Amino acid sequence: MTHLHSSNPIAPGMLGWLFKGANPWLKQQVQTKTAPVIGLTVSALLALATSVQALQVQVKPENPQLGDTLSVVISTDASDSATPTVMSPDGPVPAFPLGGNRYRAMIPTTPLRQAGRWEIRVEGEGQTRNIAVWVSDREFPTQSIWLPPGKDELEGTDLEFDRVDEFKKLLTPEKFWNGAFLRPNNGPITTIYGVRRYYNGVFADDYYHRGVDYAGPQGSSVVAPAAGRIALVGRESEGFEIHGNIVGIDHGQGLTSLYLHLSRIDVKEGDMVQAGQVIGAVGSTGASTGPHLHWGLYVHGQSIDPVPWRYEGVE
């Protein structure tokens, strides 16, 4: 450790010569003066080595594409450290404890976002990690929808839009879901996530299909794909012209889901539901061309593809 020489005019190799034949007082003085210098240097090196490993970040999936949810898992050394802060390209996103000095933040991506290099900044324990993530582009099909007379002029009501927007902003600290999500209905999938649409011949700008449609038979069961709290119940008769009879589940930590066009609702706001529990039945209420279930999944208010959650889930 040659850098010690500059802080002590006596080179380490000379200590043995000085001690040879020296009286005890000299030995004590030299040891007293050098020990603190060596002790401080070693302590500083140990602190530096520890801090290098104190904050670790892992982002999943490894090869994301537009529509995926980015899961940012952060590991720290100290059990009493403050919650790390996470900055996405769209701004700050909350991180929640997973246990064992680990935290997780979720970042949504959508078809309306730019593919390419996304930078995520994580700060914690006095350190900063800048993580580059490459989000691949994705081709989304185009679909023409022809609404029947009486439904082709529906514009929706302030009531339904305000209620749905308020629901999507929920940020409950608790995490209710666990593991991969279930299929909410057994009907065949007719419209996938992200489809662009023409409505009665007019292209819908800045629109993409915010969910997955299941063409289940009229009255077939709709189940909760994961545990959560019923935070929204709305009915066509109350002014939900576009959404129809609707149920919203708060899964916690910024993850919410919506179930549209129901013929029947079997839950009420405030109910806690478990994965697989029946919450209603398929219908054709609201802006719908026939019986089907529209299932939408949202992260911090942004519509993401529900399908990866069915096969992998997010920790």
Tell me the helix content: 10-25%
Question: Please, how many helices?
Answer: 4
Cα-to-Cα separation, first versus last residue: 45 Å
Secondary-structure class = alpha+beta
Helix/strand order, N-terminal first? HHEEEEEEEEEHEEEEEEEEEEEEEH
Domain M23ase beta-sheet core: 208-306
Protein name: M23 family metallopeptidase
InterPro entries: Cell_wall_metabolism_enzyme, Dup_hybrid_motif, M23ase_b-sheet_dom
Distinctive features:
22 strands; 4 helices; 8-stranded antiparallel beta sheet; M23ase_b-sheet_dom; M23 family metallopeptidase; 315 residues; Cell_wall_metabolism_enzyme; alpha+beta
Topology (elements, then pairings):
Blueprint: H1 15-19, H2 24-52, E1 55-60, E2 69-76, E3 85-88, E4 91-93, E5 95-97, E6 102-108, E7 116-124, E8 127-135, E9 142-145, H3 158-168, E10 189-191, E11 196-199, E12 202-203, E13 212-214, E14 221-223, E15 228-234, E16 245-252, E17 255-262, E18 264-265, E19 272-273, E20 278-281, E21 293-299, E22 302-304, H4 307-311
Parallel strand pairs: 9-11
Antiparallel strand pairs: 1-2, 2-6, 3-4, 3-7, 5-6, 7-8, 10-13, 11-12, 13-21, 14-20, 15-16, 15-19, 16-17, 17-21, 18-20, 21-22
